[in-house]
Amino acid sequence: MADTGNEIIFEQSGSYVGRTLSRPGARRSVMGRGRYTDDIQVARTLHAAFLRSPYAHARILNIDTTAAAAMPGVTRIVTGRELAEHVEPWHGILSSFVGMKSAIQHAMAVDRACWQGEPVAIVVAETRALAEDAVELIEVQWEELTPVVDKETALDAGSPVIHPEMGDNLALRQDIDNGDVDAAFAAADHIIEDSFEFGRHTAVSLESRILVADFDPSTERLTIHTSSQVPHMIKTVFAKLLRMPEHNVRIIAPDVGGSFGLKIHTFGDEVATAALSMILKRPVKFIADRLESFVSDIHAREHRVRGRLALNKDGDILAADIDDLTGVGPYSAYPRTSVFEAVQVINITGGPYKHKNYRAKATVVYLNKVPMSQYRAVGHPIGITVFESLLDQAAVVTGLDPVDIRRRNFMPDDGYPAVTPAGLPANDLSHEACLESLIKRMDYDGLRREQAELREKGIYRGIGLAAFIKGTAPSPVGYYGAGRAPIAAQDATTVSLEPSGAVLCLVGVTEQGQGADTVMAQIAATAIGVPIENVRVISGDTDAVPYGGGTYASRATGIGGEATFQAGRALRAEILRIAGVLLQSEPSTLEVFGGNVVDAANHANIRVTLAEIGRIGHFQLGELPNDVQPELSQTRHFRVKDVPYIYTNGIHGAYVELDPETGFLKLLKHWIVEDCGRVINPNLADEQVRGGAVQGLGGALFEHCIYDDNGQMINATMADYLTPMAGDMPDIDVAHIQTPTSASELGAKGVGESGVGGAPAAVLNAVNDAMMPFQRHITAQPITPQSILKALGKI
Amino acid sequence: MTELKERHEITLTVNGETVTRTVEARQHLVDFLRNELQLTGSHLGCEHGVCGACTVRLDGEIVRGCLTLAVQADGAAVETIEGVTETGEIADLQETFVERNALQCGFCTPGMLLTAAELLNAGKPATRAEIRTHLSGNYCRCTGYHAIVDAIETTNNKRLGTK
Ligand code: FES
Ligand code: FES
């Protein structure tokens, strides 16, 4: 638990923790001075474009590049087979998933393409337009093969097997079986049973994937400018795949134009681009155009889940039983795999509640579609939707209000530490407090009255709730680390006192506009005791900052923030030690406050400024005794220990209006109360939650990678793959309950994904609530006007 | 393809400065601004006219820089985020965007600001719903729009003296 000493630090007048401050990066962006990878000019850059498979599954009989290579301006064309001599293939499995299978994947298809969009050949030319022109001149002789496109039949005996050497299309089966589920179902008064379908999504970061790879043959160094959340992982992975000494690879991530989990994966086209830079000894740039993004970016969330809930007549949950089937791509993503999503689904389903009998099965199968892997709030929208929807059905049969059935079954706020139904340790959660706050903010009873009155007039409104837990700030236990993935489970920060008295803060976690740099500055300034204007944060350059995991799984503040806090406290202690020598005072009688060393007793008398300490500590060391060596740079590492995740929790409320004639849905308002522990910057935290919620709502209502029977994605344009627009979305009310995590002194948990997970469930429950008078309901997402009309029996 | 690669000389004013360049017939205005003039404040999110990240002004009207050809701007006046920043025309809106955190990654922001400026320039009260409708050709994947609507609403009200 955060000790009282820290409470004092966070609450004293010089503290920046808990204060809304604007982001310096935001000021650059509004003035058109953002600097994204595409804005970087590297002299003599060549441009890459890819020939991609037009088929979901096809053998490559021959590739003729003669005409393309003869085009003026074309520097080099390399096929997948040729590239395989320069690039190591990869294997997207982790040893922690016992029995997991995947085929070996090459950067580009060698003799067979396994999804529509898989890169087949790379063209490098003077301009991107010329490279694209040349791609059109490459002639490939294809032999079409039968694609596996339906997850429901992918394991059938008669199904084609994508990789014959694997024997079948199974990636992984994982089970949980806690308590006595069969006995609980046998004793139940009510059993709720349903099946849920979730469409595929993709991240659609507004800036697409991009890199400029710059190999310098004189030093054998490879510098890659790229839009990435995980520069160190990319460094390690690219070094391995390109057979480079790791210390010769440098990754620089400038401004990142959205990422959402997309930019934490290894993409063959990016590896191929770097390889071509090494082959040609020139910088090579690749930027995915939007159309190829849809068939080469990671997809996510294609699941079918069957769920059962056992209850007694009072509405107590006795047991839950779920069966998740997901169809990923033809290969498991490297190095994070494509099975985490299903594993997260079974981990978090029903997580807020206290039932102990829980059985879950996850089955992950390979398909000839774009590879799936981690995308913001991995698996959570699915598990939350399944459970919260079943719970609302349970409320109906037991005659309870949706609020009351949740109240009744929540893990109580004073019941921690506890264990979730899946058997995972959970601590410092606040379901009850969040629910009570939510219903007050919504004026739940008022909305119910309004709903009833409007129903009389033929207006159909619905209210939906969805409670959740969210795994954040993963530890090395049971996550990537346990499976031997080259992904840092810890993070580190170095803070240095400069001669001027300013502080340089080098952080391993990364900024994508969520505000990590600002939050780190707030934490560092508070921990040391300096004005925030005097703190400069550097992130996103593997040559400059300590090795770290970067940003994923809502870990920047929870993990990087604690490393920054500890580094800051260490620097403060060192400053006080030196001040003590200079002032011949006991360091414990001194404090760093407002950029000065002051008397601890009153924080008032300035005894010596930090600029003075910086000057002496760097320039006039003769003023210090010989045995006092100032250590004005301090590095601290931090990892979460003992538990796999720092769980957060929260609850969403949705209010919708449904037109039963047209099937149109209007989102009237959305509310979220969540508990991310100590809030460092309220405005940034709120906007993370809001932005996430809209991404979740997009998935619930619009977003869908639609495939035909041949494995062709038929809506692979931004005009056809619908993401939420301003006019579709409601205002979103956000509030926080703050229960600091006991896993760190800072007490912050993750916040970046809390908006995403619960929103689809809340809106589905609201739609079904609105359809209650018709005694119909929906269990598939996206929820479209057609699906509503179909459910209502109108079409 | 040959006609597309044909080159034309164009003369236009960009942010008040006259520039003359020879461009390929197929080059889009936003590529021209970004690649030839290094005005990288305008972005490319889709290159097919959907997202609005490439929004710039052509003779005072906002257009999609990815659908407009550079040759179409011959003789015209083009303004980009860099230009309107320089003139201070939307300084209040920019400040409110920063304060309200109405942007995260910032990739949509220049286009969003120019689209919002159009609404502000109308000089009329606008409801939140009207602001949302006005923005519906500009995608933002990060913010969920709420803060953007707040920032525009605040600025509009301030300009109209209603708050
Ligand atoms: S880049 Fe022009 S509208 Fe998207
Ligand atoms: S701020 Fe990232 S797309 Fe709008």
| Biggest sheet architecture of chain B | 5 strands, mixed
Number of strands of chain B: 5
Mean pLDDT of chain B equals: 96
Shape of chain A: globular
Overall shape of chain B: it is elongated
CATH fold node name of the largest domain in chain B: Ubiquitin-like (UB roll)
Assigned CATH superfamily of the largest domain in chain B: Beta-grasp domain
Q: Give unreliable regions of chain A as ranges.
A: none
What portion of residues of chain A belong to β-strands? 15-25%
**From the helix content, strand content and strand pairing of chain A, which structural class follows?**
alpha+beta
Strand content of chain B: 15-25%
Amino- and carboxy-terminal Cα gap of chain A: 57 Å
> What is the top-level CATH class of the largest domain in chain B?
Alpha Beta
Which runs of chain B of at least 5 residues are low in confidence (pLDDT < 50)? none
Task: Give me the side-by-side strand order of the main sheet of chain B.
Answer: 2-1-5-3-4
What is the average of the pLDDT values of chain A? 96
Number of strands of chain A: 33
Radius of gyration of chain B: 16 Å
Assembly context of the chains: heterodimer
Q: What's the CATH architecture of the largest domain in chain B?
A: Roll
Q: How many distinct helices of chain A? A: 20
